[in-house]
TrEMBL record:
Signal peptide: none
Protein name in the entry: Methyltransferase type 11 domain-containing protein
Pfam families in the record: Methyltransf_11
Residue span, Methyltransferase type domain: 44-139
Organism domain of life: Bacteria
UniProt GO molecular function: S-adenosylmethionine-dependent methyltransferase activity
Length: 232
């Protein structure tokens, strides 16, 4: 069940991630740095949110972009933003990708979604199935060693559901996600058949220095997310 942050408050979430420091000046440039040329490629955007990545993929020349999200409100925002330039539909990704054909997709992007899944292996196995041989996936997720993650850990190696209140849209909203070890993430990737070709901890845009020195210093010295590229 998606948090209210992504349903009732989807429009405010979309507004916030357009310009905020964590998404606009840290997460997106860091994940985009792992992507290659998109010209004429068939791309899946999993956990697409409001379509900000889909817009980028179209600008980079992708010939077909399919946006998938558990939240109908997010799918509506994508359709409002991009109309028939993309194909967008609602799907809970814990149930796989039943509408996508095997060996059909060049690239999968999945920014900040996998921490909402209790079990990663079936998800990566489905992504592997739909990718063409030679295709790749890029994703970002909470850094397993970020302070905010470790705060909740009784045992770092146990995957645990975390419940937090997030202030992303200016009002505290409950968000549930899974805190997990790097080992857990890597095992799910490799057991699905993928080979990791890049891993980064991201780089905050220097422009943030003038906007909020404290956040700039924090993200420059304590990464919040990891960014991974895996190849089929
Ligand atoms: C943090 S937002 C990221 C949105 C977008 N990728 C971005 O970077 O702007 C996470 C998104 O994942 C979606 N999501 C969470 N759990 C999901 C699931 N089980 N299946 C599909 N989408 C899910 C949420 O609805 C939300 O839109």
């Amino acid at each position: 069940m998606a948090s209210e942050l992504y349903t009732t408050h989807a429009a405010q979430y979309a507004e916030s991630v357009t310009h905020n420091i964590y998404n606009a000046h840290y997460e997106r440039p860091s994940l985009q740095a792992l992507m290659g040329d998109m010209t004429n490629l068939n791309v899946l955007d999993l956990g697409c949110g409001s379509g900000i990545y889909a817009q980028y993929l179209l600008e980079k020349g992708a010939s077909r972009v399919t946006c998938i999200d558990a939240s109908v409100d997010m799918v509506t925002l994508v359709n409002t933003l991009l109309g028939n330039k993309v194909h967008a539909y609602q799907q809970d990704l814990t149930l796989g990708l039943p509408n996508e054909k095997t060996d059909s997709v060049d690239v999968v992007v999945c920014p900040l979604m996998i921490h909402y899944l209790a079990d990663l292996t079936p998800f990566f196995t489905e992504v592997y199935r739909v990718l063409k041989p030679g295709g790749y996936m890029v994703f970002s997720t909470h850094h397993p060693c970020a302070e905010s993650e470790l705060r909740h850990a009784n045992n770092y190696f146990d995957t645990q559901e975390v419940v937090e209140q997030w202030n992303t849209v200016g009002t505290p909203l409950e968000v549930r996600f899974y805190r997990r070890s790097l080992t857990n993430i890597m095992q799910a990737i490799t057991q699905s058949g993928f080979v990791v070709s890049a891993l980064s901890e991201g780089q905050v845009d220097p422009v943030v220095k003038t906007r909020c020195e404290k956040t700039y210093k924090k993200l420059s010295t304590r990464p919040a997310f990891i960014f991974v590229r895996c190849n089929k």
